[in-house]
Amino acid sequence: xxxxxxxxxxxxxxxxxxxxxxxxxxxxxxxxxxxxxxxxxxxxxxxxxxxxxxxxxxxxxxxxxxxxxxxxxxxxxxxxxxxxxxxxxxxxxxxxxxxxxxxxxxxxxxxxxxxxxxxxxxxxxxxxxxxxxxxxxxxxxxxxxxxxxxxxxxxxxxxxxxxxxxxxxxxxxxxxxx
Length: 178
Fold this sequence. Notes:
By secondary structure, the protein is an alpha/beta fold. The chain has five helices and eight strands.
């Protein structure tokens, strides 16, 4: 059975929106290596519509291993507004919880979710995320979409790993406590 693993950049004040505007100064060879580890542990990506559109448009086609891996992995996109997807992607249609549960039942490696706060909230309500990896950046953004919002039920988590990067980024990995 596959695991569904979230990788989300957040600021100290909990903002997850538009990390491309604030995380750059904290990206270095070490954080790149950590990101590569996660990508190679996965054999598929799960993306919300906004993240998919940003990634598909902006992802480089450089001839490096990370870009090749990112571009060639199968991607599953959750959207009720898109009719068509490209970039080696499949549109998730039907009941989201059932579709994701079925993906997790398939043999393979982790399914990696990048960002996608709205999607994460929905998956969390259905207890489908197996591990939460928050890349906490040493910056206060001041406003924007937060990783979690009002309306979610309380969910206890168990810390399973902590990685402190030289740039000040701390990667906190949690699993649901239940």
